[in-house]
Each structure stands twice: as structure tokens, then as C-alpha cells.
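As the next step, I selected for study a record pairing a protein sequence with its C-alpha cells, which the following lines show:
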Amino acid sequence: MSLHDFTQVLAKTPFHDRLALHSQTQDWTGWNGYQTPRVLDTVASEYFAVRSSCSVMDLTPMEKYLITGPDACAFLNRLVTRDVSKLKPKRVTYAVWCNDEGKVIDDGTIFHLEKGVYRLCAQHHQLDWLMLSSIGFDVTIEKDTHKVAALSVQGPTSFSVLTAAGIEGLEKLKPFGIIHTKIGKIPVTVSRTGFTGDLGYELWGTPKDAHGIWDAIFTVKEHGLFDIRVIGLDTLEMVRIEAGFIMPGFDFNTAETTIRADHDRSPYELGLDWIVKFDKPYFTGKRALIKESKRPQKRCLVKLIAEGNKVPTSAFLFDGKNGNKIGTVMAQTWSPILKSSLAMADIDYNDGKPPVEIWAEIYYQKELKWHVKWAKCHLQNAPFWSHPRRSKTPPNPV
């Protein structure tokens, strides 16, 4: 092993050379051992690429596991809370998996690539938990994070951009569907998935084909047909909050990382009861979750809209009726498209019900002086932002 291998702190993805050409800030950070951009140009320009045109993001650092073997489906069905046996080939589903106490280990997506071949994508390292959970199953689990180069192409013109880049069959691809196709002469798997809540796709190829996949997309921009921008993690944080998607390790503590008792969360405490299915064979945490489902909810991760234009960064939340502290804002953003302050907050419930009146204590700095402001907050059940184009098939060409 060369000296360079010892001194390189973060690995570079197969797209790094192309990313670096687009970076005006050189603002990099770490993601699962890879060097990845936080912001390449400005957050504003990247944000509106997602919501108004077409954005491209490097997804290679996402944890990916290939799961095969005669018991692959049975193993996954034992692992997660929803019924994987109903997931047909060339389809994708969202899932969470728990420990025996019914507390969430992580969440992610399960891709049924072809009959009996699955890929599990997760936010955090899961190989140890997967191997432990696979005891007794005839299944092969392989970490293929480094073997798959992945791009997320999102936004209202993403369908038109990828079609112009030479990908055929997108007009028939439904949300959470998969096609195995080509971009030019390069084999690529395309899924109609994403973390933005908008129309979008994810492209999965090999590292050796990464430059070819990237260049095929950006050649469309060079021809002056569409505006395409590369985005980083800061923009992704904004749009995922708008879409109401949760982030393990940011919005809640995962069961594997929690140190103090009662600081982890169950699917019920994250508003994910809709993917807990008791009418399927036993899964890890089922007994604990059955018991929890029969008790009034004590707390929950909720979506809030705060009045005014101050973002409730890490704000404490209070019950407007009695003044008691009831929770904390976990993630927050100002939504340019909604002109609102949005938050994901962990709050206490009273006899299974959320407080009627919620106020946020917001501290903010202005010209090096700190100020405090109180903002009334409103619970939001649906995603903050959603657009019909996300699910329309075929998408309207733009």
C-alpha cells in the first residue's frame, strides 16, 4: 500500500473530477468516508435547480448492500417492519428496521432489481447488523457501496434531460419503478426515486462508466437545451425537509448510536406507523411494537410551520396553554418556494394527542447582537411541499 493510501483521509467518488470542475466554493465535507460537496455554487442557485429546472447530485457515498440467495426475500421480511414479499421485481419500497425493543436502527430503500436480487440502501453502515440478522438464512450479503456509482437527477426538467441524454423508456417508468437500460452505449439502471419530493430519477452504474454517464447528461446542457446544476448536501437538506423526509442521526437518534436510555425512537414515535405491518411473519421488534401500538403515544416527530420569517434553529418548544417545555426542533429550513419557516420537531404528546398550541423560542443574531423571538407553530400532517409532477406518468416534457 502506498503512502498516499495512508494519508488520504476521505476517498474520492468516481465522479469527483467532474464535481470539482463545477465547484466554485471548494466546500467539501465527509459522507460515509467519501469527500462530498456541501455547496458548489450558491445554495439559492442549487435550490432552484431542484424546484425549477434540473439538478444532479452524487449519491455514490450512500451505503448500499446487495442481498441475494434463496432466502433473500425471507431475510428482508424478517429484517424490516413492512411486507417485502409483496415487492415485485423492478420495484422499490421505503422501509425501516428495528432492534428487539422496537427502536429504529435505520431507514432506507429496498430495490428488487430482478427476481431474488435486492439492493438495500441506507444512511449509515449496516453490514454488522445485517450479518447478525441473517443467521439461519441462506442468503449472501455484500457491501457494494464502492462498486456502484450513483447519481440523483431531480427537478421538473429531469425527464426531458435524461430523455435527451439518450435514455429510452422513461415515459413508462412509474414512481418507485426500475428499468435496466442504457445511456448512449453505457448500461445503467434507472429508478424513479429521490429524496427531494419532486419529479426525479436515480442512476446506478459502475465506477468505470461514471464519467461516461456524467458526460452524457451534461452534454445536453452544452447543447443549450436545458439548465443543469450540480447540488450539494446543504440544498438536499432544504428540499428533503420541504418534502417531509426524515434523516436518521439528524432528526432522531438511531438505536445503535443511542447512549442514554429513552433517547432512541420507535416507528410510532417517528410518524412511521404506516409502514409497520403486523399481518406479516415475525420481524425484529414486532412484539415490542404490538405493545406500543396499544398504548397512547407519548411523543412524536412532527412537521411544524413557524409563523414569521425567523427560522427556529434548534429552538425549544412550549405548550401555549401552560407554558411547559414540550420539545425541541431537530431540523429546520427557510423554504423559498413556500416563503415559510419549516421544522421537524420532537414533541411530547398528552394522552396520545399533540398540544393544541405550540410556541417556539427562537434565538437569532443580528449585527453581533443576540435577540429572542416567540413564534407560534402549526402542525402539518402532509408534506410541506408536493407537486403533481412527482407522480404523473408519463411526466410532461418541458
